[in-house]
Design a protein that fits this description.
The structure is a homodimer. By secondary structure, chain A is α/β, with parallel strands linked by helices. Chain A has helices at about 5-15, 20-30, 35-40, 40-45, 50-55, 60-75, 90-95, 125-140, 155-165, 185-195, 210-220, 235-245, 260-270, 280-285, 295-305, 310, 320-325, 330-335, 340-355, and strands spanning about 80, 100-105, 115-120, 145-150, 170, 195-200, 225-230, 250-255, 275, 330, 355-360, 365. The radius of gyration of chain A is 21 Å and the shape is globular. At the A-B interface, α13 and β9 of A face α13 and β9 of B.
């Protein structure tokens, strides 16, 4: 991937040990792109960071780390995607703490594909793993990318199900993207790098540290429109992902089980607190109606033209063509397009997610570009 | 049981083949007690019933049926409870179509005991039956009568669980009360007649007719504060009971199971449409908090004095004593009784169900008698 010129600045800021993510976002908000931040006199940055952090920012060590990351990203199939990139996942922009930079291996165009998180216990039962794989395959066949965490058990089964159809799969790692963890899933990770996408927000070489995984879970839910928990004990990382999903406004689904199964208890707790009971993949798809097969035609086509990305494929979208650039209501669009309201609403949501249409107050929609 | 003088009139009206239940309620509403209805010139009744129905009303056949029912009820442990009786279940007065007369065997004072319906499949799994019995035993130990339909499978297990503790059990039959159905539960029915209560709205000798059972189900739910479905297929009589419960404003609970079990599908459908997921008896009891152990002290005491009924035992109720006969709010009652608001609210609900307290607009309560 050809690297954008400012990438070194993004890396310099994100790799400086004393600069937290919140500080970084504040700096970007105040001063614009990282290059502008770094061009400022260090005295002007003193309000935002400690002297140690400022010293680190200009250290040899950080400079070497930047070089290593740039060299890593030069290899085929690798990419660094920043908050400023068009390829940055739009859904992550909705969450309170989007990472400034994502290390990616695989098909970065999947970052903006309609997606569903499928997570659960590392100690899954055989039936649970089979359920996860079946559900994921159906979602993937309906065009949804399956987002999970590359753990053993439910996660691995979900990734396998995703790889089995055109929606494919995204694994969000809790380690550096160059660290294989868990080792038992090394072959699966390579398959995902080839036909799906591996993503990490952590610097290269970051080992498996317990505290990074719960934090990583917000990206699993954040990249997806909904989150399905297949099997989970009451004290389970999957419930952290489900909570993050709910906080991010994503729909949460859980698969029920026997009241005597410890791995059903987490799912039952979720259902009691408002998650939708998912008896079948169809249950989930009917809730995520906007993302069903009929709504995916152009998104799927886009996935087959990775160089252009999803947005370009919408230029010939018949609904966009009907819209003009004035605000318009759904009824008028139905009449113009000759489509039922349900279909038009689904298409509008898809276009909105693709950044081509904005929803205005009063039920009006406007073409953005 | 000594029979009230007007009983023959109740029987004459309910046993006349052409008079529907709705017509009967309309007549009672217009003219008062059955004796008054029957004292009217038949011409005056012609507005309400067909000539055939009026002829049947005064027929020899109906007169003989009345005699048979009176003779049946003369035996120990039997009773006919009419809409006009104090023993008539208050909860049934809330439903749109309360039966005018109930044939009872056993302890009629249970008709006004706090109760929970527990129903499910006739073809229950061994685990399902075990769950039903365990749940029912816990509810019964908490003072709730278990209401069910005496069918094989879940119903029978629920009755057994109810009999195992002090809440006991009520079986609502879809046949005449003198008809044993199903035969396999004959011994269970006798145990219930002895330590619980058998109830039917159907005339003596009514055989098992398919169309009577769904209609009977409204009484199973109607007699209870809530309805728990343990195992049920998608096309199941238990779902009719659950729907009746929801329509009657009762809380509906369902036990989840494997997504691959046909007998979990009915329960899952209920949860999807708003029923509470019940993983344990405690889940149900915490929802029905007003009916928990702490709230039952006086109701349980009443059950041990069947001759007096539940209402009498409330005369010494400390909260009633605090109330006087003026409208009062919960905060004032908490202060007077020295009890927390949660406890006072629960007691008020119990007293309201016992007909001793009325809830007024504006969060006020008033002692009724």
């Amino acid at each position: 991937m050809t690297q954008e010129p400012g990438l070194a600045s993004w890396l310099q800021l994100t790799l400086s040990p004393g600069l937290g993510a919140a500080t970084l976002r504040e700096l970007l908000k105040q001063f614009g792109l990282p290059e502008k931040v770094l061009a400022l006199p260090r005295a002007q940055l003193a309000r935002y960071a400690t002297p140690q952090a400022l010293a680190a920012l200009d250290s040899e060590e950080v400079a070497r780390a930047v070089e290593r990351a740039l060299a890593w990203a030069e290899q085929p199939g690798r990419a660094l995607v920043t908050l400023g990139d068009a390829a940055y996942p739009r859904l992550l922009l909705e969450i309170p703490d989007p990472p400034a930079l994502l290390y990616c291996r695989g098909r970065t165009e999947f970052l903006n594909r309609p997606a569903l998180a499928v997570v659960g216990s590392r100690n899954a039962t055989a039936q649970g793993a089979s359920n996860a794989e079946q559900f994921a395959r159906t979602f993937s066949a309906a065009g949804l990318a399956i987002v999970s965490g590359l753990a053993q058990g439910i996660d691995a089964a979900a990734h396998r199900g995703g790889l089995a159809a055109e929606g494919s799969t995204i694994a969000v790692l809790g380690t550096g993207i160059d660290v294989t963890y868990p080792a038992v899933n090394a072959a699966l990770a390579e398959q995902i790098a080839e036909r799906g996408l591996l993503v990490s927000e952590y610097p290269l070489g970051t080992k498996a540290l317990a505290h990074n995984f719960p934090r990583r879970n917000r990206l699993i839910s954040g990249l997806a429109q909904g989150c399905l928990v297949v099997e989970a004990a009451l004290a389970s990382g999957s419930l952290i992902t489900a909570r993050a999903a709910a906080e991010q406004g994503r729909e949460v689904f859980a698969v029920p089980g026997s009241i005597h199964s410890p791995l059903a208890k987490g799912c039952h707790a979720l259902i009691k607190s408002g998650a939708k009971l998912a008896e079948s993949a169809e249950d989930v798809l009917s809730e995520l109606a906007a993302f069903r097969r009929t709504g995916f035609a152009s998104t799927r086509a886009a996935a087959q033209r990775p160089a252009e990305g999803a947005a370009a494929s919408l230029d010939n979208d018949p609904l966009l063509a009907c819209m003009g650039f004035d605000p318009v209501d759904v009824d008028s669009l139905c009449a113009r397009a000759g489509l039922p309201a349900e279909r038009v609403s689904a298409e509008l949501l898809r276009l909105e997610l693709a950044g081509r249409v904005a929803a205005l107050p009063g039920g009006l929609y406007q073409r953005v570009h």
